[in-house]
Amino acid sequence: MSIHWHSALANTFWGATSVKAWRRLRAALSNPAEVQQRMLFRYIRRNAETAFGVDNGFRSIRSIRDFQDRVPLRTYDEIEPLTRRIQSGEGCVLTRSPVERLVPSSGSTAPAKLVPFTADLRHEFSRAIDAWVLDLFMGAPRLAGGRAYWSITPAAAFDTDPTPPARGKRAAVPVGFEDDSRYLGGSRQLLAGAVMAVPLEVGRLHDLDAFRYATALFLLHAGDLRLISVWHPSFLERLIDTIAVHYDRLLHDMARGSLTPPYSIEPEVAAKLLPLLGPNRRRADLLRRVGPHNVRAIWPELALVSCWADGPARGAAAHLATRCPGVRIQPKGLLASEGVVTIPIDSTHPLAITSHFFEFEGPDGRISLAHELERGCEYSVVLTTGGGLYRYRLGDRVRVDDVVGRTPSVRFVGRDDRVSDWFGEKLSEGFVACALESLFAGMSTPRFAMLAPELTSNGLAYTLFVDAEGPDDVRLAEDLDRLLQRNPHYRWCVDLQQLKPARVVRVGAEATQAYIDACVARGQRLGDIKPALLRSETGWASVLRPSSHLTSERRIGCRF
Fold this sequence. Notes:
The chain is of the alpha+beta class. Helix content is 37%, strand content 19%. β9 and β10 (367-369) form a beta hairpin. A 5-stranded antiparallel beta sheet has the order 10-9-11-12-13. Strands 3-4-5-6 form a 4-stranded parallel beta sheet, with helices on one face. The chain has helices at residues 3-16, 19-28, 32-46, 51-55, 64-70, 76-87, 119-139, 186-195, 208-221, 233-245, 247-256, 267-273, 281-290, 295-298, 314-323, 429-439, 473-484, 488-495, 511-521, 540-544, and strands at residues 99-106, 111-118, 148-150, 227-229, 304-307, 328-331, 335-336, 339-340, 357-361, 367-369, 378-384, 392-404, 407-415, 419-420, 427-428, 449-456, 459-466, 500-507, 546-550.
């Protein structure tokens, strides 16, 4: 049986067995209040006798209000002592369901979180992904006719436990997954493997350049590629660039069935990959005529790319679309290691209300339930999940942009827990997002834009690293500083000359990848690196390799 038909059968089976999850979600979207209440009380009943349930009086909770009164909002720092108890082998701490793994998840600046992963949480992920996959197949049936590429996290980007067990001892609960498909588990994991254009073994390569080369080679072999799912758009762009740089070598390997990247590659990994790379002279000759820059000709069946396309990633997604003409770019739903927030349905992103219980914190601190959200307003996401997170502040800020049935559709805006505060200026990513939206109004959205403090010869100044063409840098810097001074704390720091007026630094096309590489070097997991509009650390100028810059050092008048 050919790979083409093997993938089509696997996709067909996946779609057929996803009907229940899709119908359940569709029905729930018209009744979010009742569905969410049932989900919360299922958690409470199942986990009433856990250590957490006893401490928080789960047995006496009779309403959502009771739950909110008894269980305070929590960040990861407040949950971390409980995850350590789980890792040491204590059972029934957060959930009655055993914790199978503690999954590392990066914070805003460092790898610090270990998220409990249970069978219940796996089912919650699967319900969301199944509904999304079937909706894709129903909207574009040809997607089911061939292979897909679901981005793989390379071994070099795996997080490690920030505080491993003492020497000579083994953790009672394992940390991390060997590959990302373990989030699905069981038959779903097997189905994902059956339709993957790039085998999971590629993720075992530690050299990032070798990883990209091997990924590119397998993708070139996949003439029937229909769907690509990645995180940041630049990840796919970097793979396309790898193909262009090494095109002749890649086609030579394709024709011979070999794997000869000009980088270090582990022999044991190569031994597993080589049998999967049969010689294909016919396709190599075809691609040689096509050339390395015509994405549509390389993958004529490619119909959809799923990637981040909201908030800080909007410009990068728009640029990716220009390199993949005729391919639909679908903004990815909001997912985290802790849970699923939204599911892409058509052009909307309704809340995954059949997966978890959601609450939302408004700017004034008021808590709203899913059915109480207002269009156009922004909220911070609070999760309760089958993995044992209760009223957990996810740290993601979203904006309500539509309604599906009676369920809000939301878009990612930025991180709530990303704040820069050197002298009391208290700049948040949400505020910076609004400022940059105003700054670039009427202009093309930049592929890369990030604000960070930089040490200059005159002192510390917030610097906008941007790759967009537009007004001269002095004018842009003046407009930026004026917008930032809407924050009275920032304005006061400039008045006191603790901060110098904002600057603009132009960066090149590689800025996004340079940013991602720097985050990986700092220990963040590749799949967890979300685009950032604000960083609080200095030193980004050397990382992002600015092409040229002009600085506005002129004092800008302050308003009171």
